[in-house]
Amino acid sequence: MISFYGVIVMSCALSMITLAVIVGKNTVLDKNSIKWFRFTFILVAMGMTFEYVGVLFSELGNVPAWLFVVVTLCEYSLSPCLTLALAKSCGIKASIKPMFAVMAFHAVLEVAMAPFKLIFFITEEGYFSRGDFYWIYLLFCGISFIFIIFVFFHLARKAKEKSLVTLLLIAATFLAGQIPSIVSDHIYTGYFSICITAVLLYIFTQDLMRSQLIEIIGQEQEKSTHDSLTGVANRELYERKAKQINENIKADPQAMHFAICECDLNNLKIINDTYGHESGDFYIKACCKTICNIFKHSPVFRTGGDEFVIILQNEDYERCDEIKKEINDFVLSEVKKEGSVLEKISFAAGFSKFNSKTDRTVGDVLNRADFEMYIHKKTVKASAAI
């Protein structure tokens, strides 16, 4: 049994040392987490080694009592402290000084009580035995358990729902090894479970940080391709879409069925000059909302300060003429409405459908839509003057 246990300890300890060496390579962890994980792996390797030496001494018997006591004190002092290192490894930003003080007090108690054989003692035959105040060690182990649960709770708040099951399994792994080793001196699963828990938390923390980085990158990409004021796609995304459509036109022009609508807001300069740019922004958002409501099935792009381009496909493409009439009726009704220019949604719109025989690019379609838009703008201004 002791030989088998020794092989397990050696394998786990060497694994911990190996992880401590490679922890900073090809990782998304920050420098602080790398430092603490490295420290944790080393502590686990040391703790397992001290525990094994203590078990070996107990098997051999007749080992100098003072040496047995020193080894046991090292193990008992390290065991509860490992949760502190795991907490910092997993990115706990809050200060752990109070918990560190508690564990330091525990180490002092262990050393102070050792000569009086209160927590543990070595028998005359050289075997380990629990003392009358062994519950003190169990108390600090309990505090350590509560703290590690806090660590898991902290990770759960940062993780997605699908990660909660993983956290529960890691916590179960930790407790499954710790509880039996506390109940009996002859079950040596405590450090083995800590070893597995440390590795699992290392993998979990990396995956968590990787997911957060991907999410941040996605948000930044969203910001870079969407207009910050209105939330619709910006000119950069329009140019990407146009490039993609151009490639499709080149590959098979007969298969392409789309139209373009170009919208230009009316009265924006007057509103900015009269009411201020904040009111101008409000007006832009109001007009954009109306445009988006009209083109429910098509992407809307803000390509300039007062310009929007819509690429009509599928259902909106089939309803192109209906939408054109809907916009014309809406704008004319707004022109006749009572109130200031700020209260009237007004924009000119030009439409053009892709013609596979004459059009070679999206730009060809846009030019015709742009020309029609200016004609519509003149019509709207003429109606406003009546």
Topology:
Elements (H helix, E strand, L loop, with lengths): L1 H21 L8 H30 L4 H25 L7 H17 L6 E3 L5 E3 L3 H25 L5 H20 L6 H36 L7 E2 H17 L7 E7 L2 H8 L1 H18 L5 E3 L4 E6 L1 H5 L1 H17 L10 E7 L8 H24 L1
Parallel strand pairs: 3-5
Antiparallel strand pairs: 1-2, 4-6, 4-7, 5-6
Helix pairs in contact: 1-2, 2-3, 2-7, 3-4, 3-5, 3-7, 4-5, 5-6, 6-7, 9-10, 12-13
Tell me about this structure.
68% of the residues lie in helices and 8% in strands. The chain is built from 13 helices and seven strands. It has helices at 2-22, 31-60, 65-89, 97-113, 134-158, 164-183, 190-225, 235-251, 268-275, 277-294, 314-318, 320-336, 362-385; strands at 120-122, 128-130, 233-234, 259-265, 300-302, 307-312, 347-353. The strands form two sheets. It has a five-stranded mixed sheet. Strands 1-2 form a two-stranded antiparallel ribbon. The radius of gyration is 36 Å and the shape is elongated.
Largest sheet data = 5 strands, mixed
Q: Helical residue percent?
A: 55-70%
**Low-confidence segments, ≥5 residues, pLDDT <50?**
none
Order of helices and strands: HHHHEEHHHEHEHHEEHHEH
Shape: elongated
The proportion of residues in beta strands is 5-15%
C-alpha-based Rg, rounded:
36 Å
- Cross-sheet strand order for the largest sheet: 3-5-6-4-7
| Overall residue-averaged pLDDT value | 85
Count all strands and give the number.
7
Intertermini distance:
102 Å
Q: Specify the structural class.
A: alpha+beta
Number of helices: 13
